[in-house]
Amino acid sequence: MADEETPQPAQQAVQVVQMAQSVTIQPMPEFRPDAKVRASLATRWNNWQADFEMFIIASGITDAKRKRALLLYQAGPRVREIFKQLEDTGNDDNYEVAKAKLKEYFDPQKNRRYEVYRFRQAMQKPDETLDEYHTRLRTMAATCEFNDVEFEIEQQIIIGGISSKIRKHALRDPKFDWKGMLLEGRRDEQSSYQIKPLRTLSQKSQPMYIQTNSTGNQRKPKRKHVAIAGVNIRTVCKSKPKAPKQNTRKQHKGRGKALNPLNHDETDNSDEDYLYIVNKDHANTAKVKVKVGGASFMMTLDTGATINVIDEQTFSKMDGVKLKQTNTKAFPYNTTQPVKFLGNFEAVVETRKRLSVAMFYVVKGQNSGNLLSLATAQDLGLITLHLNHVTTKDDNLDKILGKHTKVFHGLGKLKGETVKLDIDKDQIPKAQPQRRIPYHIRKQVEDALKALEKEDVIERVSENEATPWVSPIVVVPKKDGGVRICGDMR
User: Could you tell me if residue 68 is inside a domain?
Assistant: First the structure.
């Protein structure tokens, strides 16, 4: 059989061109001006026009007459109907005129206020990465005509982003810009992705079993105290039995029996709270005006509260805040019907001086009141606890100190007793070099040495007398401006 001829380079080039020309391009979807979507008409037309420009470039069409005809054909019958009503649309070969006339028709219908509103309502979706959220914000910001686009995007990432870690970092560090947010977001998302297989392996590990002992010491459940709008609440973790008291003894029968295996997910989520209302006291409550989720309202300060609570009426004033499901339950005193929570959310809380990030629980009720917890009040600088400034007064102690003033006056010395100090004679005396004293505390050091000499704690060595042991002093500044003199006895 004869060998087939090898194709020449010119023939190969022709085949490549034919293959490139044989590539089919999907037609453009028609533009629907009357479609009811959230984006404005001008924004949708500009996006469609940009896609059409890429379409004609990929199609290899350069003739203006063909581009004009293709523009009106791909745009659809509704756009062609609008185009017929326009004036001065040019000839059939004026593509740029036709494009400008359509843009002129759709652009005046752009509402900047609505575009800004859509931008403010844009929240990061649970399945959306921070990079995708940033791209979506930048696309929306193009129609908002912001003076500082970068700053507005940073603010929206702080408010609408999912990561509370990035939000706290941004509020703590003013120099933390959107580039740093994206970098930290990528790291967190990558870490979350890498840890998923490890969690799966831990869940498949050997289950845990619990043995009950009715006579042994049972571990007491953790308790914490909460208050809702002046209502003190005691919370107990879910390890507390849910059954009535008369049935708890039956649960502890069968000493040493293994119970059902516990899932790691169940043991990890042991912070589900059960709330029990103890008493109500709405009098003499301190309130402060805060701003959360774009809404300003009053909240009651309570140092006994560990969670922030708002009612349904206050939550309805907020825009763009989505609730998350919560397992927290609240039981009014001496009742079995729990107070219903609609959910919780994390948001930025702001006062006149400071702002912070906190978790809020929404109570089902139109006028239940709002409560600001101790931790959030401290973050906002509304409450300051001086735990180390506690003073006590004992009447008996005051009487004893007043009766024996001579004994408790001054430095205190042991008189009439001889004390012997045993010194190892094999140790060679050392004269250590003097430590330099900072210039700004030399006056305080001199005053402290004079006071110790006056109280007969130390005594001056004669100038012509030699001493075998020389130890330098160590000066420690005090909070009141004085100094403490210590000896380096080495």
Answer: yes
